[in-house]
Predict the 3D structure of the following.
Amino acid sequence: MNEDTNKAPLTEPERQMYFIEGCRKILEEQGVLGEGKTPVYHISTFGCQMNFRDSEKLAGVLESIGYRPVDSEKADLVLYNTCTVRENASTRVYGRIGYVGKIKKENNPSMIIGICGCMMQEPDEVEKMKKSYSFIDIIFGTHNSYKIAELLYTLLMNRKAKEKKPSLKTRVIDVQKEATGIVEDLPVKYDSSFRAGVNIMYGCDNFCTYCIVPYVRGRERSRRSCDIIREVEELAKKGVKEIMLLGQNVNSYGKGLDEKISFAELLDKLATIKGLQRLRFMTSHPKDLSDDLIKVMAKHKTICRHIHLPLQSGSSRLLKRMNRHYTKEDFLSIVKKLRDAMPDITITTDIIVGFPGETEEDFSETLDVCETVSFDSAFTFIYSKRTGTPAATFDDQVPENVVKERFDRLLNVVARCSATNASRLVGTEKEVLVETEGRDPGTDEQKQEIELTGRLGNNLLVHFEGSKDLIGEIVKVKIEECKDFYYIGKLI
Ligand code: SF4
């Protein structure tokens, strides 16, 4: 520990602000920052919206040090924010690390490579990284990603010390086993000027038997409502129109807080914030979805008429083995309550095919729920064995060919239902948040009108002609054509 580190405040966020300053000083001394010089960074993010939100926070700190973002991995600092929810998520990361290692070796030996996120909360993966990839400089997890400035400072100081003592190891590894408190008020970068994700809680206590998240994201902890309200108010003041409230299980928001507040009460407060036009949230857990929440959703026009409600399986027997704490009947009654209160609500879901022990009878229960509910869309997954989860030890794994055949049948049912549901909006006029240029903006700069892509309140996409300066605005569009899971429309 060097002298300057000992001087660092012990409280957060002051400590990280101190190291932000410290990093900037070192980079200026080394002549890579200042006098027209700007170091560049690249963050590669894998996985869910929680991870993308964490990457926005990492970017906020790096930019306050003085780094600027680039799209390429040919940068001075490269971070991989990893996911481990399914096998393929991990394999993809190894491919990228091999590639960037080559860039460092051949073009930029002083490049800084860091890896963080859910994969780094798995001790085996950290060991593999340590052994196989000596060129990785910083390794940290999900519980202390707020410490990026302190970890970078330590690395830069280690590199300085190595100039005098070449045998010194410079690598910094800091993976915190358990999550501690929530650090607020560090610099954040929001990727969009008109919509933003806002964390309301972290972690998950549900321990579904197939899921690795509770082991890599820790126990549930909620942000204080005053911090969430302040963040949403500031974003709305800056012109952000749509907010997505994020949590592994938003319905258990408030647990463990000194203040007594439920998710429904928080949503009720946020829905009336001045300037906010759209409020969304994910992910909900059917076992915690309260009648109060349904009432609050129906009460406020700002709350989008869309809910993502993971079913996972339609078989109550399998739901028990998954430790989901609801039955097929419970799920169907929640859907009925939602539709009674909001007939135009869009319901999307997650479904796993091939969970250990799944019989043809179990699977037909899943198809039955899909037919009964007629989901507007569904994320369908083939069960992925995750080491460390109880289900990975279940000995009745379902043969691959059986799973594949079931998966195809499920896709047909889901696609048919979502196409039928989607077609109902043809001919209606809907409010659309214009998000990006469309599929083929065309090269003709003169063209005033280009194809734009926007999102309806129900979360479905619509493509229509309009001028580029509509991006970020909420406009009215007539839905003219339905293309199964997106629309073609006309600006009104
Ligand atoms: S609710 Fe279940 S599936 Fe969702 S993150 Fe928690 S443990 Fe995983």
In short: The pocket of iron/sulfur cluster is lined by residues 204, 206-208, 211, 213-214, 248-249, 285 (CB under 6 Å). The chain has a mean pLDDT of 94. The first strand starts at residue 40 and ends at 45. The chain has four domains: 3-174, 190-304, 314-424, 429-491.
